[in-house]
């Protein structure tokens, strides 16, 4: 039997150590994700780490270090497809980037474990856990810092709610006022509001717009043109 010719106790124990290390460390990363109710939780991160370790260990067993390095390159690119599956776009917001990055790190932990560098795999796991837990208070603190519109790159939009029959003229009016203020419009969308009203949402081209200009524009639309609901919002992005 081919199994008897391929089985060697010490290489088998070496593989066992790689698998167990990847399983334990992947589970540790996944437990934190599961606790926070992320899309990719405990089982996903554990399986990603184990799978990466298995491929790298197999390459090392069959072809040595050179082959394992080649497989690591494929693991790095292949995990990108899995990570893309947890990234979701909701309007102007993108969710799941942190989860995808964590999956990528789990694959790195598994690859390191599969290369028999247990201490390095443990170190990377600790760093990943610190990044996902200890940095959260810092992120929250930064998010609470007030910012001025002119200091960030963002997507700006101005919204007015008008009766449905007046949507056409009011849309032209909104675009005209924005362009007169040298705020070119990238897109104008219509969203239904109740039975007889619509919201006209003008997305601006500019990524640095002073808050005072938008405040003045919104106030003018309400005061001069009698628009009951006029507002603006900003969505920051990388």
TrEMBL record:
Superkingdom of origin organism: Bacteria
Which Gene3D superfamilies does the record match to this protein? 3.30.70.260
Where it sits in the cell: the answer is: Cell inner membrane; Cell membrane
Residue ranges annotated as transmembrane are 6-28, 40-59, 71-88
Q: Which UniProt keywords apply?
A: Cell inner membrane, Cell membrane, Membrane, Transmembrane, Transmembrane helix
> Which membrane topology describes this protein?
Multi-pass membrane protein
Please state every residue range assigned to the domain named MgtC-like C-terminal.
Answer: 156-232
Cell membrane: present as a keyword of the record?
yes
**Segments forming domain MgtC/SapB/SrpB/YhiD N-terminal:** 20-139
Q: What does this protein do?
A: Virulence factor required for growth in low Mg(2+) medium and for intramacrophage survival. May be involved in regulating membrane potential by activating Na(+)/K(+)-ATPase.
Tell me which family the UniProt entry assigns to this protein. Answer: Belongs to the MgtC/SapB family.
Put simply, this protein is called Protein MgtC
Source organism (scientific name): Sphingomonas insulae
Its ancestry begins with: Bacteria, Pseudomonadati, Pseudomonadota, Alphaproteobacteria, Sphingomonadales
